[in-house]
Amino acid sequence: MRDEPSPSPRPRPAPGDVTGEAPAVEVVGLVKRYGTKTAVDGLTLSVARGSVTAVLGPNGAGKTTTIETCEGYRRPDAGTVRVLGLDPRADAARLRPRVGVMLQSGGVYPGARAAEMLRHTASLHAHPVDVDALIERLGLESCGRTVYRRLSGGQQQRLALAMAVVGRPELVFLDEPTAGLDPQARRATWDLVRELRADGVSVVLTTHHMDEAEQLADQVHIIDAGKVIASGSPEELCRGGAENSLRFSGRPGLDVASLLTALPAECTAVELAPGSYRITGKVTPQLLATVTSWCAQHGVLPDRLSVERHTLEDVFLELTGKELRA
Amino acid sequence: MMADTAETTEPGGGPGTFAPRPGAAPLGRMIRAQAALETRLLLRNGEQLLLVIIIPTLLLTLFSSVDIVDTGDGDAVDFLAPGVLALAVLSTAFTGQAIATGFERRYGVLKRLGASPLPRWGLMTAKTCAVLVTEVLQIALLTAVALALGWSPHGNPATVALLLLLGTAAFSGLGLLMAGTLKAEVTLAAANLVFLLLLFGGGVIVPLSKFPGGVEAVLHLLPVAALSDGLRDVLRDGAGVPWSDLGVLAAWAVLGLGAAGRFFRWE
Q1: Of B20, B44, B117, the CB nearest to A200
Q2: Which ipTM was obtained for this model?
């Protein structure tokens, strides 16, 4: 079931990638339906050991269902899922100590104190990391004695992250680890993910922030409507042929064909979304002048005019016609 | 009560902190840690304390000292103490456990624990241990209060323990059935309502003989009625083994635990 138009998935070699071992995660033709709604529709992806893999997509794309199937919470309607070479449901008892899980929300007793809960989670493992150091690492010292329901959203997220990594797992699943975090806490989370990777832990995270995927991931799988629509390293996905692009906003429905005639032959111009335009090609000072003078002729003030390199967001928009954070 | 602390830890920071070294803690240690955590959380929760400690103690003291309900011949405390012990078991194993577990399900605690090395049966064992520890504390306190009020218990302590254990099994099954199938808010309301109804209609403080004959016969089949009746037979009247009450409790335990095992949803 590989009908997706995906660039060939070629993960770059990662530390801790041991040849001959099963991939960290191998999902083939996964289908999951809830009633009449198909949440995951023939999804195939693979996660190399020791790598950071981002599953990117808008809300409702099937990210959480896919992750939760890998975690053993959901039974596939079709297809196969292997985690560290094992079946997440049949081999659950063997997998649980080896896999760290951060749910999208919740997972902690409302009346448990932050440090108490982390210490408890550590006590379920044979060789946990030092709890106090981890608390400090994630900036939770000030709220160690605060009960979970009184923590801020960001503190709750960081506690859940700490609980996922405290048992020294081989593989962690992080479902939207930075949702609701302020920029500083987001950085701390990114640093932790990088450290996990450096220490040889395989990381699978979901996100709808393309910058997060670009920053962290060795491999990105873009998901839409329950299918992988593109896979590759951020560089591979962003290369997209164009060197860079010029973007601006104006009134919707400008005559793109007329603009195109004014531009050099190798350029393209598209209206990505109503009122949002992108020109790709070799962006030179001359090209910029051409575009602005064309705008002047047409009585358009090019708002938010910017020269950009191709981003994952562009890739996503091209592939799906949708905004990532819709 | 302290949680078991991890035996092996690594110094924090620096490279290699997170180098994979997975493994489950020994099963006994996991269950002990889980039971200690759940007991601590229960004893720290104000509403739970009200339910499992304050209400039974107040009822025992109030109704023993003030002649509100006609409890038949003999000292009121000899009638009330067994009933309140049954109520204590009901409050912890049924009402308290149903509400706590319902909210744990709602907040994804059960789901997250399902991904931890602690197996589900280990979690249920830990929950049972937490319930039993709480019951021991309740029974110690209520016994002391009842003795101070002039209670003179009779009978075989082993029979009493058997009744309390079967009662715990019956109430736990029903409480978990409720927590695992209904929404948390519904469980909260229903478990409190059932507690209140059984307080008055379960032979706890009002003798069932006060009810009309047909109603009384039906009420006798309630688990809390069987437990308070059985405890009363032994503790007040010095009877032997109250087989019919044990039978009723065993039937409820099989039904409740069976249905909970069948219908409990973890998410």
Answers
A1: B20
A2: 0.87
